[in-house]
Amino acid sequence: MMTTLTDRYVWAVQRALPEAKRADIDRELRASIADAVDARTENGEPESAAERAVLLDLGEPTRLAAGYSNRPLTLIGPDLYVDYVRLLRTLLVIVLPIVVVVLAIIGIFAGAGFGQTVGTVIGTTLTVGVHMCFWTTLLFVVLERTGNRRPLNAFDPDHLPALPVSKAVKNTDLVATVVYVILSIGVLFWQQNPGIFVTADGSAIPVLNPDLWSFWFPFLIAVALAQLIHAVYVYRRGRWTYALAGVHALIQLASGIPIIVLLMSGRLLNPAFFAEFGADALMAPGGAGNLVAAVAIAVIVVGASIDRFVKAARTPRT
Length: 318
Description:
By secondary structure, the protein is mostly helical. Helix content is 67%, strand content 0%. The chain contains eleven helices and no strands. Helix 2 (22-41) crosses helix 3 (47-58), helix 7 (171-190) packs antiparallel against helix 8 and helix 9 runs antiparallel to helix 11 (288-314).
């Protein structure tokens, strides 16, 4: 004879089921419990202990009800999880950095200060990132709950990744390029911050010629970002080729030649800055200081380009 324990269990299962299924599940579940209890009592087990053991075997009523109604108990199930992660990764790795760059460019051309631009970029990036995560998750939750659980991308053996090969490009190469690009762009903005360098009367005075913001500084920023993209591509490919070394050399020349020309013509540095500290003769057009800096930049550009061609030559061909 069943006790109220079974009634309570069946009711807990039923309340998590759609109304239309409750009567059928009630009969089926009670019959299943009764058969299992009878099997245990025939082996000499007390009825109360047998009933409790059967209910323990059936487990949590809500989980059992989910099985009856084919309703997932996960936020995003295994059928859609791969697509969910792939889409979210694409948004955060590709789309979000584009948003950051666009915001920075808008801040530059809008004339916003360095601190204001950085604050706007950080705040908006966090907001956009949270929205990307929230709406992407909500989309897949809706797909999961409405029964549309077919993977968005059907598996194709032709799309399997290539077998791994030993990389000739080290992680340190990519990290060095990332740090270099960040520092280069950061210095351009940092040196014109009103609180960094000031004249005797307290007015701001940048080290670099502020007139170059009309074209050359945005151009050099674009070249630096191109160098970063190139470094990521080389790292993903895992090896240097003569073509990639050639592209690297062009990027180096695109940044090095304008800087050298601007240096030697006396247009790169802000004359007012060096006049303020009595070093205007040293950094005058064609002066010794400009010449030394230009030679150093040329050596760095040529050396970096040769190094990449040497790496390409040493990379085994497949």
